[in-house]
Write a structure and sequence with these properties.
Helix content is about 20%, strand content about 35%. The chain is of the alpha/beta class. The site of NADP nicotinamide-adenine-dinucleotide phosphate has 28 residues, from strand 1, strand 2, strand 3, strand 4 and helix 2.
Length: about 160
């Protein structure tokens, strides 16, 4: 399901146990994957929850950053602020790009998944028993568009792009 003819895509690095966060931080930092994230999202609007924004700590350049929060006083240098997911998507359509990227975190992924067209996942072949934030079940996304295995240091990971069926 698209939003006003835009493709809604999620980008996320996910452990085999669906873990994505701990202590409001990423669990794994894979430099190749961070570069890929930059390449995929560059020039596009990116939507994120307030906690993910605070975890990153600053706006990401070269992209319209849209932060979702219920806090009416919230401001962040160089970013747009939206007080609902729907308004965030509306703001994103002001950017003349056909794809809108949802970049986290767990709360936002859960709410946006029913409207999502594409998942750009990095499946990290590891688990984090102390994880606090998880990616939601994505059983409706079964069509594999792209799959490629990579390795950095001791970590094996698979870039997996999935489409809804
Ligand atoms: N592995 C990855 O690729 C990846 C990617 C992104 C994030 N993460 C990790 O995920 C964790 C953060 O995720 P999270 O689930 O704790 O938080 P989050 O989804 O980033 O942000 C949650 C916040 O978003 C706002 N919000 C959520 N739904 C809303 C709605 N419908 N309307 C208005 N505001 C709404 C609220 O902000 P207010 O409280 O301000 O109202 C809420 O507290 C961190 O550990 C981060 O590192 C991992």
């Amino acid at each position: 399901m698209s939003y006003q003819s835009r493709i809604i895509s999620i980008v996320c690095a996910v452990g085999e146990d669906c873990s994505i966060g701990k202590n409001n931080r990423l669990i794994w930092r894979i430099s190749e994957d961070l570069q890929r994230f930059k390449n995929i999202t560059w020039g596009h609007p990116i939507l994120m929850g307030r906690k993910t924004f605070e975890s990153i700590g600053h706006m990401l350049p070269g992209r319209e950053n849209i932060i979702i929060t219920r806090d009416m006083m919230f401001e962040a240098h160089g970013c747009m602020v939206a007080h609902s997911l729907e308004y965030a998507l509306k703001v994103a359509t002001r950017v003349e790009r056909e794809e809108i990227f949802i970049i986290g975190g767990g709360e936002i992924f859960k709410q946006v998944l029913p409207f999502t067209d594409l998942l750009y996942l990095t499946i990290i072949h590891a688990r984090e028993p102390d994880a606090e934030v998880f990616f939601p079940a994505y059983d409706d996304f079964q069509k594999v568009i792209f799959s490629e295995v990579h390795r950095e240091g001791s970590l094996n990971f698979t870039y997996l792009t999935l489409e809804r069926i």
